[in-house]
Structure formats: structure tokens, C-alpha cells
Structure prediction request, 116 residues.
Amino acid sequence: MFRRTIVARIGPFSLFMKESKGLAALQGLSVPQRGAKLGELYRSLSKAEAAALKDRAAAIPSAPRRARKPRIPAARPPSPYNLFVKKNMPLYEGRVADRMKVIAELWKTQQNKKKK
Prediction:
């Protein structure tokens, strides 16, 4: 299927916000008040100023695409207990829970023998 690619370009209002960050009219205002004031200033621009702002915003290139690293699943090596269970599981019959109990006891006895 087709993939939709979203190109994140900067718009004229975003460019206006960046350029008017240090205006004296915006100093000391809270965030909501600053947003309202910026909206008023943007709407009060003349057609020529708005067109120039739109052209400058279109001239700014979009952010470069980041190359994705291929995902490599973290595969741990099996522990000695895992290998022991895998080797001994076919030797016993019955429910898995019962077989695991027998294999766990066998593992404990082997570990105790190794410690001594």
C-alpha cells in the first residue's frame, strides 16, 4: 500500500510568532494573553506584509528526515536453568505445571550438589 508522508513545514503564523518573540507589546503578558495579542497583531498585518511573510515561510526548508535505525530485538542468551528445563521437559509426562515442579526439584538438588 501507499504510505502518506507528512512534510512538516513552517507556516506563516509560526514564522510570525518566532519573529515577534521580543516585541515590547508582548513583554509581561501571560501565555493566553500573549497568544491573543499575537493573533490580533497577525490579523492586523496588511495584505503585502502577509504575502511577504507567507513567501518567507515557504522559503524555509522543512526539517531533514531522520534516518531510522533498524530495530534489533534484544535477545538474551538462555540461562542455565532455561537450558536445563528445555532438555528435561520431554523426559516427563503429564501437565506442564506438574512437570515443572519435578524439574524444579531436580534443578535444586543438582545445584545443592554443586555447592557441596
Remarks:
- The two ends are 63 Å apart (CA to CA).
